[in-house]
Write a structure and sequence with these properties.
Belongs to the sulfatase family. By secondary structure, the protein is an alpha/beta fold. The protein is built from 16 helices and 18 strands. It has 2 domains: 338 residues, 3-Layer(aba) Sandwich (Alkaline Phosphatase, subunit A), CATH 3.40.720; 94 residues, Arylsulfatase, C-terminal domain.
């Protein structure tokens, strides 16, 4: 793997570059921007519910935004964040489906049964149908609701689709990973299909259009056709910057000096996405929405370091419970914020957007029980203390148990072989296998020697199943205090026990062969009917469907010509 090429470099050498110094956290990079005193005057009164634009990016690393010291150009995001409120104590989940489910429901994974992995294309699984979603609550409050981009919350039944879960319109992909031009997605060798949908229909005619631009253009069309006098919610879930690493040629050219090819393509995708956000912001102003709007920007998980992303100087990467996997980029931009142009260190989690946005919309939360999120608007807008004091990052009973974990190591109250993580106040506890624990410098440094963290990981992690960090004092997770503070470890283990008692069974059914796109006209989409019950979720195909399979002989031919046509139309690398 690429990171292991960094063998032999010293910690002192990295410090000489300033990468591990505390200067990175000094106010010069993340604190309040000096402004005119009048900037802190009260904003216009909420005379009507605000328009809400929620922008979610995919696999964007913590380091990969200009105001975190990145070499990637993100002028639009930098400006919006500088003029709004940067969230520098903001947490998400380490992979796609969990973050999206918690955003849409306001509940931890353990309370929706989605605490293990992601929802895969061939699984008869989706966001539980008994959950009242964020867009449904906004619809109740009189909002027009629209989704553009990546769903990744299941689609095996039509009842699972975005248009059945609270969105008036939808343009995007249902699975988690598609080609940016052809919209093809392969879930294993020979299991490929087209995945771009308009509402509940396959959008064959949109093939060949780069998804980042397509989605931004769709937002503009929605705004142009709607009245700014009526409240609107648009959820923009960009595919960018998830693999495959694809970008229009002109954006890659800007980063031609980058030695690392993956990083070069990734940087181009980030900048392209930044420009798409610029176009969305411009449309808000052009069509009269901006003055009464709230723009929320969030990443969905940490960056994938072997695909160009960087979470430096945080530890870990996408798919891990180290800070590099769960600490996200987040900011809020709005003329309605009372205290603008500042950095907030209030503790915020992705589940908090549900109650926060419903409250902003003047919706009714009294009939919604069991939310794990909090209304954090006073903390964001006015600088008040966050109502949140702890975060359950997750408890995953199905993940590979740590070899050296045991109930004994958990004081007889918790099996430390189980993958789990929790933050309470300034303390963070991890048990089981938290995932790869490297600190990986930005990949622009192609020939950077040194992999001092490998030795640290080998000596510090191989025979461990419990870690404790003071995240406030040690945001890079360099100093494990589990042996020095067993009292804190025990306290946090008790919190895990508490949460585990409220968990529902994991929903992770076996894949079903009926989901193959060849049986569905060459596209990914719902394959089970309303009458199909639990046997679908158990992975068994209903008998009545077994004799209906016909191989789609033209699917491969259709796919070939679609790809050929796209490559002739597109100028890309």
């Amino acid at each position: 793997m690429a990171v292991y090429a960094l063998t032999g470099f010293s910690l002192i050498s990295l410090l000489s570059f300033g990468y591990l110094s505390w200067d990175w956290m000094k106010p010069s990079l993340v604190a309040d921007v000096a402004t005119d005193p009048m900037e802190k005057s009260l904003p216009p009164t909420f005379t009507r519910p605000p328009h809400i634009i929620f922008i979610l990016t995919d696999d964007q690393g913590y380091h990969d935004i200009g105001y975190h010291g990145s070499d990637i150009q993100t002028p639009t995001l930098d400006r919006l964040a500088a003029e709004g409120v940067k969230l520098e104590n903001y947490y998400i989940q380490p992979i796609c489906t969990p973050s999206r489910s918690q955003l849409i429901t306001g509940r931890y994974q353990i309370h929706t049964g989605l605490q293990h992995s992601i929802i895969r294309p061939r699984q008869p699984n989706c966001l539980p149908l008994d959950q009242v979603t964020l867009p449904q609550k906004l619809q109740e409050a009189g909002y027009s609701t629209h989704m553009v981009g990546k769903w990744h919350l299941g689609f095996y039944k039509k009842e699972c689709l975005p248009t059945r879960r609270g969105f008036d319109t939808f343009l995007g992909s249902l699975t988690g990973n598609v080609d940016y031009y052809t919209y093809d997605n392969c879930d294993g060798p020979g299991v490929c299909g087209y995945d771009l949908h308009e509402g509940e229909d396959v959008a064959w005619d949109q093939s060949g259009k780069y998804s980042t631009f397509l989605y931004a253009q769709r937002v503009g069309k929605i705004l142009a056709s709607h009245s700014p006098k009526e409240p609107i919610f648009i959820y923009v879930a960009f595919q960018a910057v998830h693999t495959p690493l694809q970008s229009p040629k002109e954006y890659i050219y800007r980063y031609r000096s980058m030695g690392n090819v993956a990083r070069r393509k990734y940087a181009a995708m980030v900048t392209c996405m930044d420009e798409a956000v610029k176009n969305i912001t411009w449309a808000l102003k052009k069509y009269g929405y901006y003055d009464n709007s709230v723009i929320v920007f969030s990443t969905d998980n940490g960056g994938q370091t072997f695909s160009g992303g960087s979470n430096w100087p945080l530890r870990g990467r996408k798919g891990t419970y180290w800070e590099g996997g769960v600490r996200g980029i987040g900011f809020v931009h709005s003329p309605l914020i009372k205290r603008k142009r500042r950095t907030s260190w209030a503790l915020v989690h992705i589940t908090d957007w549900y109650p926060t946005l419903v409250s902003l919309a003047r919706g009714n939360l009294s009939n919604v029980q069991g939310l794990d999120g909090y209304d954090v608007w006073p903390a964001i807008s006015e600088g008040k203390e966050s109502p949140r004091t702890e975060i359950l990052h997750n408890i995953d009973p199905l993940y590979n148990h740590a070899k050296y974990g045991s109930l004994e190591d958990g004081f007889g109250i918790w099996n430390t072989a189980v993958q789990a993580s929790i933050r309470v106040g300034e303390w963070k506890l991890l048990t089981g296998d938290p995932g790869y624990s490297d600190w990986i410098p930005p990949q622009t440094l192609t020939n950077f020697p040194g992999s001092w963290w490998n030795l640290e990981r080998l000596t510090d992690g191989l025979r461990k199943s419990v870690w404790l960090f003071n995240i406030t004092a040690d945001p890079y997770e360099r100093y494990d205090l589990s042996e020095q503070r067993p009292d804190v470890v025990r306290t946090l283990l008790m919190r895990l026990v508490h949460y585990n008692r409220t968990a529902i069974p994991v929903r992770y059914p076996a894949e079903n062969p009926r989901a193959h796109p060849d049986f569905n006209g060459g596209a990914w989409g719902p394959w089970a009917s309303e009458d199909d019950g639990e046997e679908w979720e158990s992975g068994r195909e209903p008998l009545k469907s077994r004799n209906k399979k016909k191989k789609c002989k033209i699917c491969k031919l259709r796919s070939f010509f679609r790809k050929l046509n796209t490559r002739l139309m597109s100028n890309r690398i």
